[in-house]
Write a structure and sequence with these properties.
heterodimer, A: 562 residues, alpha/beta, FAD/NAD(P)-binding domain, 4 domains, five-stranded parallel beta sheet, 24% strand, B: 67 residues, 28% helix
């Protein structure tokens, strides 16, 4: 309603629109009459050229568009074919190559949203395609040329967390000649690997393994390691972050970086109140690792209980790595003393991949006993015995033991939510950081310039944390190995003449891209942070905020053409 | 004989979810009636109530905002 006042219906006079209708082989032409659509497009106001192509996205199709731009002096191009989500960038860059501003391009979806969904309705689909083309052409008339936004990039990276994931990322980034600042909260780098005994299946000592990576990182002149240090403040955005670090009570350190890697890891759950945990006769896998490492382990009869504090109400996720740790330690105990009795009580065994499956069978071969328990009736630890019920046969069993080991999950760090607020990055319900997309962008955050690896994302094995660390280095490189940051010009803008500084847009912006400037009494858009959603434009009571490419006159022209 | 009522629907679809879903419907060859016109926006938050009223005024019988 508010935006109605700015509505203008007259088209610019110098319009020279070219429309290209794609057959997509028979994908479109097989279900609607592309020739009729082309003929109709040619009759629309402002259209000076219309052409049907077999495949508009093929080299021949692209050449045809580029030729038409120069021969017919086109100043708008409309392609009616598949989805702009997949093909708009290709057509836009082709138009740019031919000398037309790429923001004067418009795409009409007559395949995914027309021919493919109305396959038996030839006449109706043809009619719909005509209308969609009419709407696209109407919008194209009101498009405006734009310039991509460019910003500088600092070739420096902040890595938060000096565990295996963070160290691996720092090492790889340094090898790519980027300057790295590695911040570790503890006085020593290495994370959980400092506390554990050995790694499987190679049987390498964990401390030696991580020490090699620490040495490698320390030996690089382009890495600055800050131990016993925490991140206190973060300002700025991709390419230009300003970081404040704090070492103990000391003076704050200021740094500037272009990208940030979150590798803060996770911590094993302290199972207070579970299965009579006392840290002596009932311990965690982590404490067992320490005993094995220090040679203090002496027990003869061991029972391990899986999913201790995991996959229960309130903590429903599977920590993924505890089964492997239990099987690893059980096999180690049998190796040390074949006479020792080791029982593993489990709900489901998670030993993914061929190597880990092999470990499980080897452990069985060594005489480790596996028994299933019912989560409804968890085992009880009482008087030097573990009591449990075998769910299938229904019999009660008692296993005498002198040590109970609880396999507790990795849980998110307490400081995770503070970091989440500092960086404006999301967490899941368990406090682990949430990546941009579980499968397509597993190491990125939705926030540009911030990346994620290791157990801060989800419990990971050492090999996984390392490969994620290396992967994250590649992701950072895709940003920082460019001369400058180029982003889409389709962002919001606020007219300083009409803005009254009501702050309505500021609260609506999901990306924190709007700032109130007290000296001017108005709001301004940070074009690098702006993602072009247009929430501000829909909110602004004075219509001062607009979204380029989706301005009222552009959308209303499309609506008028329905 | 009465002509059957065939409503004209205008949909404002978010580029990242609803518009992608409409693409997926196509890729999956789901068939639906051809009386809907989808207008792509970058976020359903862009849709000002004025756009909805304008669509109704221009002859739409129903407006769908999906995001």
């Amino acid at each position: 309603m508010n935006e109605k006042r700015k509505e203008k219906t007259e088209q610019p006079d110098d319009l020279r629109i070219g429309v290209f209708i794609c057959d997509c082989g028979s994908n479109i032409a097989g279900h609607l009459d592309c020739s009729a659509v082309t003929e109709y497009a040619a009759s629309l106001p402002g259209v000076v050229f219309a052409k049907e192509n077999l495949y508009t996205c093929s080299e021949a199709g692209i050449t045809e568009i580029q030729k038409a731009i120069s021969e017919h002096e086109l100043n708008r191009v409309v392609v009616a074919s598949c989805s702009p989500r997949t093909h708009q960038p290709l057509f836009q860059s082709s138009c740019a190559e031919a000398g037309m501003n790429p923001y004067l391009f418009e795409m009409v979806n007559i395949r995914d949203q027309c021919s493919w969904v109305h396959m038996q309705e030839h006449a109706e689909a043809t009619e719909k395609a005509k209308e969609l083309v009419r709407m696209g052409v109407a919008k194209a008339a009101f498009l405006e040329p734009q310039k991509d936004i460019e910003a500088s990039l600092l070739s420096r990276v902040l890595v938060i967390g000096g565990g295996v994931a963070g160290l691996s990322a720092a090492e790889a980034l340094a090898d790519m000649a980027l300057e790295v600042i590695l911040v570790e909260k503890e006085p020593k780098a290495g994370g959980l690997l400092n506390q554990i005994n050995q790694l499987v299946p190679e049987g390498v000592k964990a401390a030696e393994y991580v020490e090699r990576i620490i040495e490698s990182v320390n030996s690089k002149s382009n890495v600055t390691v800050h131990l016993g240090t925490e991140v206190k403040a973060i300002a700025g955005y991709i390419g230009n972050y300003e970081i404040t670090l704090q070492r103990g009570e000391g003076e704050a350190i200021q740094e500037k970086v272009g990208c940030i890697v979150v590798a803060t890891g996770a911590v094993p759950l302290e199972p207070a109140g579970l299965y009579g945990y006392d840290g002596e006769r009932v311990i965690t896998q982590m404490q067992l690792e320490e005993q094995l490492l220090n040679g203090q382990f002496k027990a003869q009869r061991v029972v391990m209980i899986q999913c201790a504090g995991a996959r229960v109400p309130g903590r429903e996720y599977c920590s993924r790595i505890c089964c492997m740790i239990a099987v690893k330690n059980a096999a180690l105990i049998k190796d040390q003393d074949p006479e020792a009795q080791v029982h593993i009580l489990y709900r489901d065994i998670q030993m993914y991949g061929t190597e880990k499956e092999r470990m499980l069978w080897d452990a069985r071969g060594k005489g480790v006993r596996f028994d299933v328990y019912d989560p409804e009736k968890p085992p009880e630890v009482k008087d030097g015995q573990v009591l449990f019920e075998q769910p299938i046969v229904g019999t009660k069993r008692q296993i005498p033991c002198d040590l109970v080991v609880l396999s507790t999950p990795l849980v998110a760090r307490e400081g995770a939510s503070a970091l989440s607020q500092l960086l404006r990055i999301p967490m899941d319900q368990n406090g682990f950081f949430l990546e941009a997309h579980a499968k397509l962008r597993p190491l990125d955050f939705a926030t540009d310039g911030v990346f994620l690896c290791g157990s801060a994302r989800y419990p990971a094995t050492v090999a996984e944390a390392r490969s994620q660390g290396l992967g994250v280095a590649s992701r950072v490189a895709t940003v920082l190995f460019k001369d400058k940051l180029v982003t889409s010009a389709l962002v919001a803008e606020i007219d300083p003449e009409t803005c009254v500084g009501c702050l309505g847009c500021l609260d609506m912006c999901p990306y924190g891209a709007i700032e109130f400037v007290p000296e001017k009494g108005i709001c301004e858009v940070n074009t690098i942070l702006c993602k072009g959603c247009g929430c501000c434009a829909a909110t602004c009571p004075s219509q001062s905020a607009t979204l380029k490419g989706f301005k009222p006159k552009q959308l209303l022209s499309q609506i008028r053409a329905i | 004989m009465n002509e059957e009522f065939n409503p004209k629907i205008v949909a404002f679809a978010c580029n990242w979810c609803a518009y992608s879903a409409a693409d997926l419907a196509g890729v999956s060859r789901f068939q639906y009636p051809p009386n809907i016109r989808i207008i792509r926006v970058m976020c359903s938050g862009r849709v000002n109530p004025g756009f909805i009223l304008k669509a109704l005024k221009m002859g739409a019988d129903g407006v769908l905002v999906a995001g």
